[in-house]
Design brief:
The complex is a heterodimer of chains A (about 850) and B (about 120).
Chain A (H helix, E strand, L loop, with lengths): L3 E6 L3 H12 L4 E6 L6 E2 L4 H5 L9 E3 L1 H6 L2 E4 L4 E5 L4 E4 L4 E3 L2 E4 L3 E3 L12 E3 L3 H16 L5 E5 L3 H12 L3 E6 L11 H14 L2 E4 L3 E6 L5 E6 L4 E3 L2 E4 L3 E3 L2 H5 L8 E3 L10 E3 L4 E3 L7 H15 L12 E3 L7 E5 L7 E8 L4 E8 L2 E8 L5 H10 L26 H4 L6 E3 L4 E2 H9 L5 H8 L9 H12 L19 H10 L5 H7 L11 H12 L13 H5 L2 E2 L5 E3 L10 H13 L4 E4 L5 E6 L4 H10 L12 E6 L13 H12 L8 E6 L13 E6 L2 E6 L2 E2 L3 E2 L2 E6 L2 H18 L6 H8 L1 H10 L1 H18 L3 H6 L13 E2 L11
Parallel strand pairs in A: 1-2, 1-9, 2-5, 9-21, 11-18, 12-13, 12-18, 13-14, 20-22, 34-35, 35-36
Antiparallel strand pairs in A: 3-4, 6-7, 7-8, 10-19, 15-16, 16-17, 23-24, 24-27, 25-26, 26-27, 28-29, 30-31, 31-33, 32-33, 36-37, 37-40, 38-39
Helix pairs in contact in A: 1-8, 6-15, 11-13, 14-16, 21-24
Chain B lengths: L7 E8 L7 E7 L2 E7 L5 E5 L13 E3 L2 E3 L6 E3 L15 E2 L1 E4 L2 E7 L3 H4 L5
Antiparallel strand pairs in B: 1-10, 2-3, 3-4, 4-8, 5-6, 6-7, 9-10
Classes of the chains: A alpha/beta (about 850), B mainly beta (about 120).
The structure holds siroheme (SRM), flavin-adenine dinucleotide, iron/sulfur cluster (SF4) and FE2/S2 (inorganic) cluster.
Chain lengths: ~850, ~120
């Protein structure tokens, strides 16, 4: 009897494995394979090792020409199949070979996605999929080594492939940049903390990592070759080679042409059969139960299932859970399963900041649902195995995260971050005391906080370093020392606000994921309490180069308006010092009419509130107000709200100084800066105090001899009269004093702590001493305030009118989908 | 799920990337305002944009883990099943979403609200 003919389209890793199974089981087919590539089957995964120089093509061949001969398999190389005739059961290739089949396996894999950028066809723009790509990259790299000038490679895409390409090209001596659209690398496999560690590692090795950037065009060097990549923000990154690694698309065109059911991939059932009898699909081109895969493990399982079915031993494929490793020398990274957390899931996070280790397990119903490991991944397969088998881990729970070989070790040491600081780290900023000095004092017998204070002066001034000094005591003395309880920022951490702020500074932590990693946060993504606090601390610490994290801001500060109980907004434009004009009032009147604003009200802060505005209207209202010169009044901000004034010498018969003018000056000088909590000020023209300056965060009372400066008043939840800060006889000095005071508060205040609470905590006299007596200190604060104001005074309304954060103000428009394949709920 | 297969209409919502990570957008379908949330780990969820407490717009809240904190009085709502967390009690409707390539789709039941309310319980 004539043997049945089995034809395979594509000779990648999946069909290669299928053939091995068929041979093992003594199949009875006549086998013919068509491959578009001009070569035998090789291990595609290993391309990264060929690129980084650790292996050659010969090393990664899976099946040699002899193997095909020995097993009587006909391989057509450079023979892409262009047509499947399902009626006559025959296929034909572009080079004219045709072949009849009884059973057909489509294993066309995927094609890399090419971003539709201008310049995508220039010389030197590649994708990363097959040996040809690697050879092109290697030839550019060797050119780079030969030329006196080092050539530059830009990799677009910071996923698995992009990073492997980047590491390989770096190894080949090129200067490498990675551009990634999202804020974290490998966001599909990693959570932000692990992604951040990875970015750090690549940066340390010399790769320029750009996250959160969009590539807009590839520029031309004038000779049809690439010169650089232009980003949406206008920057151009020079490039002699551009590698696009932005994702793959299952290659389904051939199947579709043949009338086979195709969605994202070629749809197969549990037996790997497509919608047509005798035609199967296998590998990355196949879609099973809604999922397509881009890793080999699932493809190998499919290969086995299909081989079994072909030889008449029915077996079924049930889908796969995948695990990923990054194949870059010296980077250990492992991710498996579903590691996003949900309410019914719990997470166990282990962070060892000094060793650069981050591990996270997500548990559901006492089973492991997902795992991300960075820095130390040897337990990855152990976790993955328990995950796949659904092992109940209740008994292991307490020590699970420490891994398989854990032998009852110790719990995490909370003072680890402090222990890891070098001796010259400045612990007490006020008195310039380093860790080494404190350690020496403890070694010399000071075993209490007061003892250390007496000997070193550390933590004897503003006190914000008390927590750190106590941690050094704990670290030196162990359980002998009982620190005073600090209130943690929130349940995500054991550190208090002071500790967090000091450690951000000491360890120069520069982003929220970095803080969470280095300070061993207990959750992966923080909560609505700690995220806004961390964001403020970073804004304050690095005014010019920290990228404000809007997703960590409360809606009011994101929308630059106050949310109301019905979801509409209110807005309050600035009226400097409470003074207005007919033009301003007319503009407000017009806006109110034009946008049907239901309520207009004079606020307690000497300005006008428009309430009940629809979110979609905000931009338009701001545009109209902006034309008349209005800027945001920050009525929503943890920042300067109002500077109330009275009429002063301009009109009042008792006025001693120009209180309105000074109030306007102060407001214009101070607006825009973010502070721990809101700040309200006032200037009264005489001690009758019509502007109510003595219950404000900062108040000025004008007197004949000049200006009496007050601070730390309250008239909200608490009522408290101000303290006198000092006296000055000229306006400029008043402004300098207030700015220095504000900066001291900005640097020391806990998030949401008003000035009166902060000043009470650090001592009113301490504030007076630093601002009024120590003029050097005052100048330093003032200079730092000025530094941060340089980038702070941008009107957020104008910014949004010009298009910033557009998505915040527009809804998504839905388009009904006409025909939808059988319903599947994916969540 | 009690939703029958025929009763769902799917809608195309454009690229997933139009929702910021740890952020949200809104879509209005059949007069129903739905919040679309994208978590740090790049999961997308859709739930009614009305807090079970006092109808606060959940899409304006801070997204953390698979939850959102309501901007009005800080209830924490699960994006997965729409349930209020901790001591608070209440639940909002959830909607199925699918991601096809980069494109986001949402399924909204064509039946009346009464039936919808049982989805996700
Ligand atoms: C509009 C206004 C009332 C009015 O119609 O006059 C107002 C409205 C609100 N105040 Fe106020 N406060 C207003 C002047 C005041 C004043 C008086 C003042 O500024 O001279 C105080 C007492 C002074 C003080 O702050 O110490 C005041 C003490 C508070 C407090 C208590 C703060 C505290 O730390 O004790 C809160 C609650 C909070 O901030 O947590 C608050 C919170 C609020 C919020 C933001 C409630 C909220 O979180 O949504 C209200 C927003 C309504 C809106 O959407 O516009 N408001 N609020 C006033 C706006 C002033 C402005 O032009 O910006
Ligand atoms: C650089 C790199 C590193 C990788 N690293 C890993 C890793 O570490 N771990 C992991 O699990 N996975 C990794 N992968 C993914 C893995 O290689 C793929 O999942 C796997 O190779 C897919 O196998 P396949 O047989 O489905 O398709 P492929 O291996 O892509 O094979 C498809 C073949 O079909 C050919 N073909 C296409 N159309 C036709 C046609 N009409 N006619 C004839 N032939 C055609 C193609 O030319 C190709 O040779 C990596 C991939 C790359 C590119
Ligand atoms: S006093 Fe209370 S009710 Fe009135 S505006 Fe202030 S916060 Fe709202
Ligand atoms: S309306 Fe959401 S918490 Fe009150």
């Amino acid at each position: 009897m004539k043997k049945q003919s089995l034809v395979v389209i594509g000779n990648g890793m999946a069909p290669g494995r299928m053939l091995e199974h068929l041979i093992e089981q003594n199949h009875a087919f006549d086998i013919t394979i068509f491959n578009a590539e001009p070569r035998v089957n090789y291990n595609r995964l290993m391309l990264s090792y060929v690129l980084d120089g650790n292996k050659s093509y010969e090393d990664i061949i899976t099946h040699t020409d002899e193997w095909y001969q020995q097993n009587a398999i006909t391989l057509h190389k450079s023979a892409p199949v262009t047509d499947i005739d399902t009626d006559n059961k025959t296929v034909c290739s572009s080079n004219g070979v045709s072949c009849d089949y009884d059973k057909l396996v489509i294993a066309t894999g995927s094609s890399p996605f090419v971003l539709p950028l201008p310049g995508k066809n220039l010389d030197g723009v590649l994708t990363y999929r097959d040996l040809d790509d690697v050879e092109t990259m290697l030839s550019v790299a060797s050119e780079s080594r030969e030329q006196s000038k080092t050539l530059r490679a830009v990799v677009i895409g910071g996923g698995l492939l992009g990073l492997e390409a980047a590491a390989g090209l770096l190894n080949q001596g090129m200067l490498v940049s990675v551009l990634h659209l999202v804020d974290t690398l490998m966001e599909k496999q990693l959570d932000p903390s692990a992604g951040w560690l990875l970015a750090e590692e690549f940066t340390r090795r010399g790769v320029d990592v750009y996250t959160g950037v969009q590539s807009e065009a590839i520029t031309d060097n004038g000779n049809g070759a690439v010169a650089g990549v232009q980003l949406a923000d206008g920057r151009i990154i020079d490039a002699d080679l551009v590698v696009m690694a932005v994702g793959i698309r299952p290659s389904t065109a051939l199947a579709q042409q043949a009338g086979i059911n195709v969605e994202r991939g070629i749809v197969v059932d549990d037996h790997m059969q497509t919608s047509l009898a005798d035609i199967y699909a296998l590998g990355e081109c196949a879609q099973h139960n809604g999922d397509v895969y881009g890793l080999v493990a699932p493809l190998y399982v499919m290969a086995k299932v299909l081989a079994d079915n072909l030889i008449g031993q029915p077996s079924t494929y049930a889908g796969s859970i995948t695990a990923t490793r990054l194949k870059v020398d010296g980077v250990s990274l492992y991710s498996a399963g579903d590691f996003s957390d949900s309410p019914d899931s719990e997470e166990i996070v282990l962070r060892d900041a000094s060793a650069g280790i981050y591990k996270r397990l997500v548990l559901k119903d006492n089973k492991i649902a997902g795992a991300v490991l960075y820095g130390e991944t040897s337990d990855g397969p152990w976790f993955f195995d328990m995950l796949k088998r659904g092992v109940d881990i209740s008994d292991l729970r307490d020590t699970l995260i420490f891994g398989q070989s854990f032998q009852g070790g110790s719990a995490l040491n909370p003072s680890e971050a402090v222990a890891a600081l070098p001796d010259n780290a400045e612990i007490c900023g006020c008195n310039g005391i380093c860790k080494g000095t404190i350690v020496a004092a403890i070694d010399n017998g000071s075993t209490t906080l007061d003892g250390v204070r007496a000997v070193t002066k550390a933590s004897s001034s503003c006190g914000t370093c008390t927590g750190l000094v106590e941690q050094i005591l704990t670290f030196k003395l162990g359980s002998e020392y009982q620190p005073a309880a600090v209130t943690p920022v929130c349940p995500c951490t054991d550190y208090g606000h002071d500790d967090v702020r000091r450690l951000i500074r000491l360890k120069s932590l520069r982003s929220i994921p970095e803080v969470m990693q280095q300070l061993q946060w207990k959750t992966s993504c923080g909560c609505a309490k700690c995220r806004p606090a961390l964001n403020y601390y970073l804004v304050c610490e690095y005014p010019s180069d920290y990228k404000d994290d809007y997703q960590s801001r409360f809606i009011n500060e994101r929308a630059h308006a106050n949310i109301q109980k019905d979801g509409t907004y209110s807005i309050v434009p600035r009226m400097w010092g409470g003074e207005t004009s007919s033009l301003q009032l007319r503009t407000i009147a017009d806006v109110v009419d034009k946008y049907n604003i239901p309520t207009v009200k004079v606020t307690g802060g000497q300005r006008i509130d428009m309430l009940g505005i629809q979110k979609e209207d905000l931009i338009h209202v701001w545009r109209d107000l902006g034309k008349a010169g209005f800027v945001s009044g920050h009525a929503y901000a943890k920042g300067l709200r109002t500077v109330k004034t009275c009429v002063g010498t301009d009109w009042c018969r008792f006025g001693t100084q120009d209180s309105t003018g000074l109030g306007i000056k102060i407001e214009k000088f101070m607006w825009g800066s973010w502070t721990p909590a809101k700040v309200k000020m006032a200037v009264s023209g005489c001690p009758r105090n019509c502007a109510e300056a003595t219950c404000k965060d900062v108040g000025v009372i004008c007197v004949d001899s000049g200006y009496e400066i007050h601070f730390a008043g309250a008239a909200g939840l608490d009522i408290k009269g101000t303290e006198v800060l000092g006296h000055s006889d000229n306006e400029d000095e008043v402004i300098e004093i207030i700015a220095a005071l504000l900066q001291m508060y900005r640097e020391q205040g806990h998030y949401l702590e008003r000035i009166y609470k902060w000043a009470r905590r650090v001592g009113f006299d301490e504030v007076k001493a630093q601002i009024m007596e120590d003029t050097d200190k005052r100048e330093e604060y003032f200079n730092r305030f000025m530094q941060s104001q340089k980038v702070a005074q941008i009107d957020p309304w104008a910014e949004r009118v010009s298009g910033t954060h557009d998505h915040e103000f527009n809804n998504i428009t839905p388009l009904p989908v006409k025909s939808e394949a059988p319903l599947r709920l994916v969540q | 799920m009690s939703m029958s297969e025929q009763s769902v209409q799917w809608y195309e919502l454009g690229p997933v990337s139009s929702i910021p990570l740890r952020g949200s957008r809104r879509v209005v379908i059949n007069d129903q305002t739905i919040g679309l949330f994208r978590t740090a780990t790049d999961k997308v969820f859709a739930i009614d944009d009305q807090c079970p407490h006092k109808k606060g717009p959940l899409s304006e809240g801070i997204v953390h883990d698979n939850c959102v904190t309501c901007p009005l009085h800080n209830w924490v709502i699960s994006l997965e099943d729409g349930k209020a967390q901790g001591a608070d009690e209440g639940c909002v409707n959830t909607y199925p979403v699918k991601i096809e390539g980069e494109q986001l789709r949402i399924g909204v039941a064509l039946c009346n609200k009464q039936e919808l309310a049982t989805v996700g319980d």
